[in-house]
Amino acid sequence: MTDPFGFLTTPRRPVAARPSQERLGDWHEVHAGQTLLPVVSLQAGRCMDCGIPFCHNGCPLGNLIPEWNVYAAHSDWGAAAERLHATDNFPEFTGRLCPAPCEAACVLAINSEPVTIKNVEQTIADQAWERGLVTPLPPERLIGSSVAVVGSGPAGLAAAQQLTRAGHTVAVYERADRIGGLLRYGIPAFKMEKRYLDRRVEQMRAEGTVFRPGVDVGRDVAVAEVRNRHDAVIVAVGATQQRELPVPGRELDGIHLAMAYLTAANHVTEGDRAQPAVTAEGRHVVIVGGGDTGSDCLGTALRQGAASVVQLDINPEPGDTRTESQPWPVYPRIHRVSHAHEEACARDGADPRTYSTATVRFEGDTAGHVRALHLTEVEPSARRPRAGTERVLRADLVLLALGFCGPERDTGLAEQLGLTFDARGNFARNAAFAALREEEQPGRSVADGVFVAGDAGRGQSLVVWAIAEGRAAAAAADRYLTGSTDLPAPLAATDGPLTA
């Protein structure tokens, strides 16, 4: 076990990020080049090795956190990596991108500071790669069945890797020019450099997974053709239908959806273009939306040299501690400062966020380009405009980061597969990830081999939920094709985060 008194004698110490001004000068990860060892081993030693480790339940993958904490505390990276990969296909992704609900569920978090689980996870994964411990794991034999995975985000990649290793022939279809989905073009390089994604794709290719980028199923190729080629289909296209802001002036130039902006920036860091199609350089930027996508836009705009950046959030500013309605081990909604917010504070001397505000309209110049945003304060509970509080922000670039509302409806997938939508706008499915068809009653199982995984069925969620869904959908597809399965299924499609 770890040091039995480690949680008493060793204070929490997250791995320090690079200085903000240094980070703003490049697109490398915020922790790039920072020393992880021996800091992480000492932090892993804070794990209490609980009799009932609630971190298992805080993580939808059921990661064996106390087990790999012990190995990391003793610098046994081989054993730690084996335990980590037992439940997570891509721990270097989750270690960088997941907001760590496992830490909120750590028993230490009841009255102290939790273990730095996220830092430990990333370090184990990185050490495994650096030490040559991560190798392709092709199946011993092929079992003669073929599966199409539509979408190459974390859910699609996890499902594909699980099924390939089980002996199925798997082809991953991706409409973008590169594999990775939102991991590729939606996540900025300063949060995860794409070389980590590239090496996983190469590992999967060596295992036997076939990748078909640049193929938009439903448009470039008919769904019927894909169905004829394969014995089962996993739909993992994500929830990429972005929410709009239907207010006067929305049609003005200079107002863009966040994902178009982030994709353009990622094409530059990939080396495809010298300059992005949309840039914040020298502009007064307003980001509408207070979530992670808005934070990603903020960090991108700062690196592009924005003259100023303001981020608007319709929600009230959360407090610094849990409320009674969000007790341990629930992941609480508290005031958090992302690395992008740190960078804005360091550059401009103030937090860029404005809370409890709503956009009323946009104002443009004679050329039809946005020049100002009119906003108003809102009542925290009802989100109704508060009279007499309207004001104007200078804006010549507006980024709409209002979240997502399910898979896109005009791709041809839903129509050609006969899929239905649930009340939240996601593809309807039963608890076993099987897609529901138009002719079926809600809750009835489908036996035609179409499964829905990830945000396409769950709605906008976290990378760790997407990987868990991909693994569970792979187990469902394997059972459908072979009659049984040994693949792990960490959750049902109806499972959700811990709630009070």
Automatic annotation (TrEMBL):
It comes from Streptomyces xantholiticus. The keyword Oxidoreductase applies. The keyword Oxidoreductase applies. Keywords: Amino-acid biosynthesis, Glutamate biosynthesis, Oxidoreductase. Pfam families: Fer4_20, Pyr_redox_2. This is Glutamate synthase subunit beta. Pathway: Amino-acid biosynthesis. Transmembrane segments: none annotated. Residues 38-69 form the 4Fe-4S ferredoxin-type domain. It comes from the Bacteria.
